[in-house]
Structure formats: structure tokens, C-alpha cells
Design brief:
Structural class: alpha/beta
Strand content: 15-25%
Shape: globular
Number of helices: 7
Radius of gyration: 15 Å
Length: 164
């Protein structure tokens, strides 16, 4: 269970982490600047287990994976949106950041307490007493996310030659 941080539609990667901070790939450094221009309080107040809920086309713009890395570094347990930019979606899965597509979840308000069951795609808004059903992640994608990303998944399954 975590607090929902609500964002609007078409949130681009430069709003998630401005390009001037993309001089590192250290997720904690990036996390410290996440959403700094549109929600300056976010990095200081977000707690592990919190969630991001946003409008459609989340993560549009530049294809840098820094945006997904910055979010993962904050400890956010999941990003929920009606749709994701294609490259952000891939980057999120590749680094092990859980994401769910759910158009109805835009009803979630900033600050609501939310629980997520990734395997079933179930989103429970405890503050409003509502349950939403997202498109669950396919089993193989869920295994990648649970492993912490594609590289970690390959290493766990002794497929080291593909990660060198």
C-alpha cells in the first residue's frame, strides 16, 4: 500500500527528469531530481511503496531510460496510466519498474491510499473504496520486473553471455 502521486496527461521524460541531470545513471542521484520542475516536493516526500498515477501517454518525449531509472530510484512501487509512450514502456520493463495500463485509474486522486496486485492487474483504491482492473503484465514480463530488470533476469537464469 502506498500514497498516490497524481500527474496529468502527456508527461514527458524531461518533466520526469530534466535533461541537465542526465549526466549520471546513478538511480539515487536521478531520484533526487525526479519531477523537480513540476512537483518540487516530490523527491523529498515520496516514500518507498508510493505509486504514480497519471494520464495517458506517460513518458513521451526523449527515449532516454533515465526517466524510468529516476522513478525506480525513488522507491515508487508502480506507475499506473491509461497508456505509456512505447519506448518508456520498454525502458521501464527493462530496468524492472512495474507499470500498469488502466484507463479507469485516472479516478484516483492525489494522496489516495492504493494497493496493487501486479500479477492480477488489480488496483485497489482504499481511500475511495474502488477496485480497478488493469491489463495484467504477461507472466514473462512480470518475471523480468520481479527480477529487477532484464539484465538481472538473464543473470538469474544463467544467460550471462547475453549480458556481457
Amino acid at each position: 500500500m502506498g500514497r498516490a502521486w497524481k500527474f496529468g496527461e502527456n508527461l514527458n521524460t524531461d518533466e520526469i527528469i530534466p535533461a541537465r541531470y542526465n549526466i549520471t545513471i546513478d538511480e539515487k542521484e536521478l531520484a533526487a531530481k525526479a519531477f523537480c520542475e513540476i512537483r518540487p516536493e516530490f523527491a523529498a516526500q515520496v516514500q518507498p511503496g508510493d505509486l504514480i498515477v497519471a494520464g495517458g501517454n506517460f513518458g513521451c518525449g526523449s527515449s532516454r531510460e533515465h526517466a524510468a531509472v529516476a522513478i525506480r530510484g525513488t522507491g515508487v512501487q508502480c506507475v499506473i496510466a491509461p497508456s505509456f509512450a512505447r519506448i518508456f514502456f520498454r525502458n521501464a520493463i527493462n530496468i524492472g519498474l512495474p507499470i500498469l495500463e488502466c484507463p479507469q485509474a485516472v479516478e484516483i486522486e492525489d494522496g489516495d491510499q492504493v494497493e496493487v496486485d501486479l500479477s492480477r492487474g488489480e488496483i485497489r483504491n482504499l481511500s475511495q473504496g474502488k477496485v480497478y482492473h488493469a491489463k495484467p503484465l504477461p507472466a514473462f514480463v512480470l518475471k523480468i520486473v520481479e527480477a529487477g530488470g532484464l539484465v538481472r533476469f538473464l543473470r538469474e537464469h544463467d544467460i550471462e553471455e547475453l549480458t556481457s
